[in-house]
Amino acid sequence: MKALRRGLIVAVIAVLVGGFVKLRGKGGVPPTSGGWRELDGPDFR
Amino acid sequence: MATVLLEGVGAVGIRAARQLVDTPGLDRLLITARGSSHAADLAASLGDRAEAVELFPDDPLPAGVDAAAAALPAALVAPRAKRALAAGVPFTSTVDDAAAIDELLELDEPARRAGVLLAPGCGLAPGLADALARHAADALDSVDEIHVARAGSAGPACTAAVRRSRRDPAVEWRDGGWRDERRPNPELVWFPDPIGSRECAPVAVGVALLVRAFPGVRRVTVRFAEPVSRRLTWPGRRGLDEGWGSTRVEVWGWRGRARESMVYGLIDRTGLAAGTVLAVTAARLAGIAPGLAARSGPAAGVHGLAALVEPVPFLAELARRGVKAAVFEGVAVA
Predict the structure, then answer these.
(1) Label partner for A17 (CA 20 to 30 A): which of A2, A9, B279, B300?
(2) Which one is the CATH code of B2-122+274-317: 3.30.420.10, 2.30.30.240, 3.20.20.70, 3.40.50.720?
(3) B51-100 confidence digits (pLDDT tens)
(4) Contact B154/B277 with Cβ under 8 angstroms?
């Protein structure tokens, strides 16, 4: 029982720390339109 | 006809060797590596033009070498560059470690005096990313911001270098000066699929090469994603990512009175892309790639690819060899 409780505490702390670290990132804004096009012949002239 | 010396037969070196023996005008490819049996095996698989040579760190370069290329761990690159410089032979390397690149940049003055060209950072990023930045810059009247990001690594030495770079203090060029990012924040970067979005941390690697190549640029950043093996990934994601790498180059500048951005990217096997860039650069330094016009500029000294190559023929040659860049057509957000 004691080990289970310790495990739960460790898991909760890990989730909180992970969430904090994740939220520190500024984060980018996903491109909302457009896409990638391979460069080919006309681009190399 | 020319002779090229290739040092290192890891994930990048093997790809570079294959690309070099397929280059018209190459007479001999000399291959050397710490484990000489690996070099011999590789040379045997590449045909008559490839030859394994035993070359110790203190040995001089073999006679008749027209260019030297190194796909070696960072700590070994500067001594090899000095050896090439002493022999008056142009040198290129895929090195992607900030301290090692700085060490090579210290050779700029002696290289200029000797009339020798040294080209560090000729892999995926720094390397191909620099050529893409130049390609974008050529489409603009002036450039004020360059942002490079990279995901992926090739081989254990490269993976270790990426992790080290992310741990080391990051450096950013901003408003004409160096800014230390003591507590750098990661930023989400959108690479071409299937890499997709990745958190990338600012690093110092390659910033100096870009600043030297683009005098007057206001801001330069380089960001690396954490190598995938140490990240917690969703089931199935790891297999998708393994071996793949990507770079994304975003350049902001002015065309006429309008501020515009150009975004280029590439996705390929990291080792294949880096090896191909190294091979094409070595061919250009050896003078066996007449289609790859040298950019009118420095003929000697230490320079990255943005200062060395005309991007259009360079990218076309890479595309001919299967390493194809892409342009993002849409709205980039500053």
Answers:
(1) A2
(2) 3.40.50.720
(3) 999 988 889 999 999 999 999 999 999 999 999 999 999 999 999 999 99
(4) no
Phi, psi of B324 (to 5 degrees): -110, 125
> What's the CATH fold of domain B128-269?
Dihydrodipicolinate Reductase; domain 2 (3.30.360)
Prediction ipTM score? 0.77
User: Is some CB atom of chain B closer than 8 A to the CB atom of A2?
Assistant: no
How is residue B203 written in tokens?
């690093």
Parallel/antiparallel/unpaired status of strands B142-151 and B219-225 = parallel
Q: What percentage of chain B exceeds 90 in pLDDT?
A: 69
Spell out which residues of chain A touch residue B193, defining contact as CB-CB under 8 Å: 36
- Cβ B87 vs Cβ B64: under 8 Å: no
- Mutation pick from A21, A36, A45 vs chain B, by most beta carbons of B within 10 Å, is A36
**pTM strictly above 0.90:** no
Compute the distance between CA of residue B66 and CA of residue B91 in angstroms, rounded to an integer. 9
